[in-house]
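I had to read the description of the data format several times before I understood it. For illustration, here is how one protein appears when written out as sequence plus structure tokens:
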Amino acid sequence: KGIEKEEKKAIKENKVIETKEEINNNDNVKVYEKGLTKSRQGFVSKLAELTNRYKKEKKTYYVTISRQFGSGGAEVGSKLATKLGIRCYDKSITEMTSAVTGVAKKTVVSSEEQVANAFWYSGFLGGASATYDKVNGAHEEVIKKLAKKGSCVFIGRCASHVLKDYENVIRVFICAPVEIRRKRVSEGYKITPVEAGKLIAKN
């Protein structure tokens, strides 16, 4: 309750905060962002600092970034990977899963959305079709194979859940007030704020 109060206060006061707690040797970071780019680089630097102990011990580590649509999570992940000198996986995971299963990319995306919604809102995926089962199984395998290649950043794709039993995982969740996300989506996709709002609601 204390953390939730601080998060609400930060949003109201137009600030960026982060809360971190150690759970099973994993870092869990919640980020509520009100600003657009003012303190984004500073936050990327703070995230990079969390990897220091793994680098000193020459351990493989992973950063999984979950985010609300339009909150800028993809941008943070990309900049973080560049700063750390490691690979960043985002939409490429979808393409790899499609190639492995032979299932159309559109179907893979639909499957990812169903899993993401179930993970964040209900904790399970019920009534999945055989195709979705096939896609989700391959999706997990792709992420685990990429993880074997070395330290990296995963953006979305439920990587946080897939790597739930892995050590040295820094889990990040980024979100922002709807008015900020509407502005980002509107500018990024070159659409009206009303269209951006509909797109946000869909995602």
User: Anything to note?
Assistant: The longest strand covers residues 17-23. Residues 95 and 103 are 10 Å apart (CA to CA). Residues 1-27, 30-38, 119-128 have pLDDT under 50 and may be disordered. Residues 130-148 form the longest helix (19 residues).
